[in-house]
Amino acid sequence: MNTRQQGFTLVELVVVIVILGILAATAIPRYISLTTDARKSAAQGAAGGLRAAVALVQARYQANGTLTSPVTMADGVTTVVVSTGATGGFPTGALAGMGNAMNCESATACQGLTVAFNLAGISHFTPSGGSATCEAQYTDTTGAVAAITTGC
């Protein structure tokens, strides 16, 4: 009588499980590294956006020639700047300043970032899903922007 084999043998199943285990052991560390790299890139991208916003507001501030606050941008949005005079023109670390320069949706959300405006003179822009130590920081008195990627 001819019998037809049904399913896999135990040896075949064990071999497949071992191969999957080896693949998982090599893929998981690479995935974790990619996640960290993506978080760092998000913080650095946020910092780049902040630098561009500062540069645009400062350029408009200088181009207007009045050297006063607020600065009206090309799209009609007004941005409050910290200091006036020839060396000023940095957006304030508030929704009316940097928030308007970045076209933020609210005082806590800005273009996919979670925002804490002007905490001890520094505004914090954290990529969504990131930790508090993986962020872009803006200091309104100097216009300095820094990407903090130590805790990504």
Give a verbal description of the structure.
By secondary structure, the protein is of the alpha+beta class. The protein has one domain (11-148). It is built from 2 helices and 7 strands; from the N terminus they run H-E-E-H-E-E-E-E-E. It has helices at 10-64, 95-101, and strands spanning 71-72, 78-79, 109-110, 113-119, 122-127, 135-139, 144-148. Strands 3-4-5-6-7 form a 5-stranded antiparallel sheet. A two-stranded antiparallel sheet has the order 1-2. A hairpin with a 4-residue loop joins strand 6 (135-139) and strand 7. The longest helix is centred in the first third of the chain and has 55 residues, at 10-64. The mean pLDDT is 88.
Radius of gyration equals: 25 Å
How many distinct domains? 1
Describe the sheet with the most strands. Answer: 5 strands, antiparallel
Report the average pLDDT across residues: 88
Please mark out the parts with pLDDT under 50 across 5 or more consecutive residues, or reply none: none
**Estimated share of beta-strand residues:** 15-25%
Order of helices and strands: HEEHEEEEE
Which structural class fits the helix and strand makeup? alpha+beta
